[in-house]
Amino acid sequence: MFRCFVARASFVAAAVVLASCGQPYSTAIPAANSSSPFLLPFSCYVTKIAPKTVTATITFYGWPDNSPPGNAIAHPVIHQVASGDGTYCNPTTFATERSNNTTIPYGTKIYVPFLKQYFVREDLCAASGPPVGSGYNGCYKLWFDLWIGGDGKSNTHAVVRCERALTPNSKVNVILDPGSSLPVKLPGPIYRDSPPPNGTCFGMPGSL
């Protein structure tokens, strides 16, 4: 969900070091017509901040209920557009509200235990999105809206059903600045278009 687009990323100030993630580190920015979603395709940054467990509201958003619909994000950090596979080196995009900019700046990584996936802040919650999905009213206080996936060909209703099926009924534990060794379940987009017509919702039929 976004209201403005920032063309270049900035990492968490004074809080990260760059480390190899299987390939040499590169700061090269893909060309504008590149099909790659990454800003830093061969890098993996590690925070020096001690992990902290907080209790937060979790919701989801995807292509059809982004604002406007699509995969654009407010503040690219490691991706050009909302994406990721939930691993430490390629965490999935998440959004939170503007009032959290100081405590949860862009580039902050989180780990969501009930999903067993990592996420990175690259987006801003917006209350102006379409009235669908789980977080369409925007975010309030400690609230993380997680990118679920989808594209222009996705079944809108299936994406929204997936969002609602996965949204907890109450606040859950979230780890801020997590370590790199936590387990990852089902790496990749949470919602996937295949198989048609309803796709897959975190490994289950998208018609949930």
Structure notes:
There is one protein chain. By secondary structure, this protein is mainly beta. The chain has one domain. The protein has one helix at 156-166, and strands at residues 16-20, 43-47, 52-62, 92-96, 109-112, 117-124, 143-149, 172-176, 191-192, 200-201, 204-205. Strand 9 and strand 10 (200-201) form a beta hairpin. It is globular, with a radius of gyration of 16 Å. It starts with 15 loop residues before the first strand and ends with a strand.
- What spatial order of strands do you see in the largest sheet? 3-7-4-6-5-8
| Total domains | 1
**Rg of Cα set:** 16 Å
Question: Ends: how far apart?
Answer: 24 Å
The ordered H/E elements are EEEEEEEHEEEE
User: Number of DSSP helices?
Assistant: 1
Largest sheet: 6 strands, mixed, barrel
Q: Oligomeric form of this entry? A: single chain
Taking pLDDT < 50 over at least 5 consecutive residues as the criterion, the unreliable ranges are: 2-35
Q: What gross morphology would you assign? A: globular
* pLDDT averaged over residues: 80
Which secondary-structure class do the elements indicate? mainly beta
Q: State the total count of DSSP E strands.
A: 11
What proportion of the residues is helical, as a percent range? under 10%
Strand content: 25-35%
Strand-helix topology:
Layout (H helix, E strand, L loop, with lengths): L15 E5 L22 E5 L4 E11 L29 E5 L12 E4 L4 E8 L18 E7 L6 H11 L5 E5 L14 E2 L7 E2 L2 E2 L3
Parallel strand pairs: 3-7, 4-6
Antiparallel strand pairs: 1-2, 3-8, 4-7, 5-6, 5-8, 9-10, 10-11
